[in-house]
Give the backbone structure.
Amino acid sequence: MALASIPVRRALFAAAAAGFLALPLSAPAFARGPENISEVAERVIDAVVNISTTQKVAAPPTTGRRPRDGQGQGQGQQPPGAQPQPGSPFEEFFEEFFRRRGENTPNPREQRRASSLGSGFIIDAKEGLVATNNHVIADADEVTVVLTDGTKLKAEVVGRDQKTDIALLKVKSEKPLKDVKFGDSDGIRLGEWVIAIGNPFGLGGTVTQGIVSARNRDIKNGPYDNYIQTDASINRGNSGGPLFNLRGEVIGINTAIISPSGGSIGIGFSVPSKTAMAVIDQLRQFGETRRGWLGVKIQEVTDEIAESLGVKPPRGALIAGVDDKGPAKPAGIEPGDVLIRFDGREITSMRDLPRIVADTAVGKEVDVVLIRKGKELAKKVTLGRLEDGERAQPASLPKSGGADDDKSTVKKTLGLNLANLSDDLRKQHKIKESVKGVIVTEVEPGSAAAEKQLAVGNVIVEVAQEPVATAEDVTKRIDKLKGEGRRSALLLVANAEGELRFVALSLQ
């Protein structure tokens, strides 16, 4: 602390000498944030805990010399008192220093105990339930919850969910615990003040403040991404800690940061309380999650796809494939349908559907509204239980092969050479027997097809929602669409395994 105060005093002295301190700054110039942050922090901090885990791992081999029993410190051995706090910013520097010096380490076959630190918070004082991140306790042999007064409690894992990175722990305490309640994450506004409390770098309970920078962020971390983004300082060790509103309610679980250096740069992400509460309730009841399952593969409705399907304005989730054993099949949902409403909730984008379906009870019959060939249709579907989960249909890139060079409309317009799907081509590209359509034999570099990642070996199954069996069928469909003044052609494309996706190619 003394080292930090020296330059401060020097700066003040230099400013006084220059006469700058003669103009005192008003109190508001120093103010940042509302006045009641300290009151909220004092009220809730006892419910925020540190999470410590240990795991037995094999010691890594090194070239360092192991000292004989009874000897003093060998060259390069870490001296007493130089153990850095696990998770602290100094830990990696100590490890690197002694690794280079040839630090003595156990035999590679011996076991050592690795530890990690994180954060959590008590959600039920009577039952001793503690919420945290799954990655904080993943693969741990022992989990310890440390209260603000230093009390250590052994914890058991009630359940955990990898998809949302949430875990639920249970502890037993001889003295009363303090808990906090969840708030409404849907009600938060951009710019609203929030408080993060956690265990950064193993330092213990630390309070930081900031605002809600954004909502519904997709950081490609899982199928249900809808994070709250905040500039409240979140660092390594804050994972699993709570994000509070100014009423002292938990509106998020701090989970991830974007940082080139490993420290906070003001971009942190929290799982919204609405998502967390649904998961925690299921973990509490069943020890696992039980999500609804529709049995479809989906993809985004782009402007081109929306124009091709007559969806105005662009919205919803495009059904790219239907599982033969899933609930959607008997309900009459088909590839090419655009699902715009599910159980009374609007589907504004593809990302909405997996979350809404997952939050719906298994076995419930729900109403869905979809657009098929420009017309709205109503269906009823009884949800199953999620196994593999809803997922966006990936763009598959099969291996390239030979090409047939025909100078058709398709080649000139789309940049594709096509061929009828013969036994030889099926064998060459390892295409399953169940896949029917017209095979792509060449993709012109820089063409519309290349930009949309069509590849040699892909099979065109439909054009404008009409099945095609020959290359001539495709040509006729493209000519017809151009004659109707259509700006794009919607293709249903399969890879060798039969996985489907829709591709809209410009006809301009």
Summary: Confidence is low (pLDDT under 50) at residues 1-31, 62-105, 388-407. Residues 292-392 form a domain with the Pdz3 Domain fold (CATH 2.30.42.10). The radius of gyration is 30 Å. The first strand starts at residue 48 and ends at 58.
